[in-house]
Design a protein that fits this description.
The chain is of the alpha+beta class and 77 residues long. It contains 2 helices and 2 strands.
């Protein structure tokens, strides 16, 4: 599933265009400051989540790849 254009716009606005990753196991120290580029489900669709803005994070490509590779959850907003 993917996020609607309105959810993407809201998430991008909320993040001010900056990656929202705050995972301590990610390669950055503290919150990532890279420019955001991709949308990520905080909770998986298989876990009864949905495609609304509350479940959407704006991440840089590197953090998004690490999030999927790590198999764990990202830090909360």
């Amino acid at each position: 599933m993917s996020f609607s254009e309105s959810v993407q716009q809201e998430t991008r606005r909320r993040s001010r265009g900056i990656c929202q990753c705050a995972r301590q196991t990610c390669s950055h120290s503290g919150p990532c400051k890279a420019k955001g580029a991709e949308y990520h489900h905080k909770k998986t669709i298989a876990g009864d989540a949905n495609d609304d803005a509350a479940n959407c994070q704006f991440l840089c490509q590197r953090c998004h790849q690490q999030a999927h590779g790590a198999g764990g959850s990202l830090g909360r907003l």
